[in-house]
Amino acid sequence: MHSLDLLSEFTSFIEQKKAQGKKIIAFLSHDNVPEELIDAAGFVPLRLVFAGDDSLMNASHNFLPPSTCSFAQSCIGFFSLKPNMYRFLDYVDYILLSNHCVSDIVVSEIISQNFNVERLDFYVSYTRNNNALKYYKIELEQFRKELEKIKGEKIPDEKIRESIIKYNEFKKTLAKVKDLQIKGSEKLKIYQKAMLFGPQIQSELEEFIAQTKEKNDYMGNNAKNVILTGCSIFIGDYLMDLIEESGGNIVFFDSWVGYNYYTQTFSQEILDKISDPIDLLVKRFENNVYGDHTVPNSLDERIALIENYVNEFQKEHGIKLGVINHVIKFCDHFALFQSLFKDKLQDIGIQVLNLERDYSRSIRGQLSTRIEAFMEML
């Protein structure tokens, strides 16, 4: 019911923006894409954060082999079939191609070529040395020019800076959800809505946090508390239900829909120190040590983050956390390292379930059995 209500609300939001003459720029939801530039141009950034079922994945097979990332398949399926609750995709004017992975590139190209959506490009280095920072700045400046060309006028520095500060405050507010003592499914609902609406829901988010703090007494009851890491749980996915039905409760979402998004912020010191808004965005890229574009240290950074969170949580609550490493089938970014990731964490006493799957409904029972067994082991 949450997904239906959220998608209906979002459809109304997009229709309103289109009626105001706004352009809609969609992109596969990963890090390092500067949504502030899109916002500063007066356009609407639309993160594709939607999970697909069998029909949506199958609809992509006219364009891609089945051995492609299930999330990528679903994105094509959404544009191909346009399910009733996703009619807002008809309003997309541009697809932003970025190189988070090969599948992202291919899917963006296919959507552009086959579904009457113009394409913009934004490439990101996989390293974070000086040359990578220079390259990222060139990409930002080029993207700004493309947006100015669409808009028909310059985007002033002060407008970009205003957008950066707006998103910065929004993410800092969103970060407070992590410490609320509510069910993981409730946290996920907030994160998912935030990814769609952005700072538009700032006041709603503040009100929710204030009200929830007053009844901050939920600690999972008899549920087994766990961390979710790896691939995000997107809107329309049934995995969250399976975890809670199996006796689990996610206390920390170490994924792009969650921690990796809301921690990409600036301190007031940095905001005061760096006046050029483009340089601010470069600084954020430089500081994004938990993103996948941080070769060769991204795996070690993730392990250190999880170990620290587990230790702090145990110190505060006296509870040892397990880890569910969620891997969407054929997602090379996470699948290639899942065995090493599990071994390294288990070597330091943290139990890990590597859960590799696609969005097929037929495997729901199998997934439930594996999750239940893991919860019993914890």
Can you give a write-up of this model?
The chain is of the alpha/beta class and 378 residues long. It has two domains: 166 residues, Rossmann fold; 203 residues, Rossmann fold (3-Layer(aba) Sandwich). Helices cover 52% and strands 12% of the residues. The strands form two sheets. A four-stranded parallel β-sheet has the order 2-1-3-4, with helices on both faces. Strands 6-5-7-8 form a four-stranded parallel β-sheet, sandwiched between helices. Helix 10 links the parallel strand 5 and strand 6. Helix 4 packs parallel to helix 5 and helix 7 packs parallel to helix 13. The longest helix has 22 residues. It starts with a helix and ends with a helix.
| Terminal Cα span | 30 Å
In the CATH scheme, what's the topology name of the largest domain? Rossmann fold
Largest sheet: 4 strands, parallel
Shape: globular
CA-based gyration radius: 20 Å
What string gives the helices and strands in order? HEHEHHEHEHHHHEHEHHHHEHHEH
> What is the helix content?
40-55%
Structure described in brief:
This protein is an alpha/beta fold and 378 residues long. It is built from 17 helices and 8 strands.
